[in-house]
Amino acid sequence: MKKRFSIAGVLVCMLLPLMYPFPAHGKVYKRIQRDGTVEYYNKNGTATNSRYKGNSNLASKFDECIEKLSSHHSVDPRLVKCIIKVESDFNPDAVSSAGAMGLMQIMQETADYYFLDNPFDPTKNIETGIRHFKSLLGYFKNDVPLSLAAYHAGIGRVKKRMSLPPIQSTIDYVNAVMRLYTGEKKDYSESAVKRLYKRIEHDGTIVIYSR
User: How far apart are CA 73 and CA 127, in angstroms?
Assistant: First the structure.
């Protein structure tokens, strides 16, 4: 999808840094890679390799913000809290080894698409994450596990098979979020979820089966 720009949009993007300066406690640094990629990072950020572990407490100081933004965009706030819990454990300065930033671990490409100028601003980060996740829910017809997989691994890897891609970190991620969300221990990987097929017999009987 091609982005459309307008003079008003450009002016807004120019003014946002002046209206919402980076917080002093979360100073953001920028470096340019050899291929020209601009990477933002935070020296106080923490890697999130073990973010799938820990307690299941979903309460945080961001509850009011999450509730408000989730309601505005018609997304279940509990699901958003589960995503944030697994993504960053409610650390607004978190940075992953892959470069994902902030509470909802926004990648730079996603930040650019939604004109997110400061990924470490909690409110902006949460709203961008919610908007992105809502778009995935729309694409996958409200299939939460598939939308979570696309949020983690990218939409291309999921729509190719219309199932969780065979990536262990993505499978672990989806299972972790869904476990928090539903309270059930279930494996959502393709090998665990049997596809159902329908066959109509000569006498009109409809048979539902799995291969």
Answer: 9
Q: Does residue 1 lie within any of the structural domains?
A: no
Specify the range with the lowest mean pLDDT, choosing from 102-111, 168-177, 198-207: 198-207
Q: Which residue has the tokens 């049997």?
A: 194
Q: Which of 39, 64, 87, 190 is catalytic?
A: 87
Which range marks the domain in which residue 129 is found?
A: 7-210
CATH no. for residue 162?
1.10.530.10
Concerning whether 87 is annotated as a catalytic residue, the answer is: yes
3-state secondary structure at position 32: strand
pLDDT band at residue 6 under the 50/70/90 scheme? very low
Interval 154-167 mean pLDDT: 92
Q: SS3 string of the chain?
A: CCCCCCHHHHHHHHHHHHHCCCCHHHCCEEEECCCCCEEEECCCCCCCCCCCCCCCCCCCCCHHHHHHHHHHCCCCHHHHHHHHHHHHCCCCCCECCCCCECCCCECHHHHHHCCCCCCCCHHHHHHHHHHHHHHHHHHCCCCHHHHHHHHHHCHHHHHCCCCCCCCHHHHHHHHHHHHHHHCCCCCCCCCCCCCEEEEECCCCCEEEEEC
How many structural domains is the chain composed of?
1
- For residue range 39-49, list pLDDT tens digits in order: 444 544 433 43
The verdict on residue 106 lying in a domain is: yes
Predicted structure pTM score: 0.68
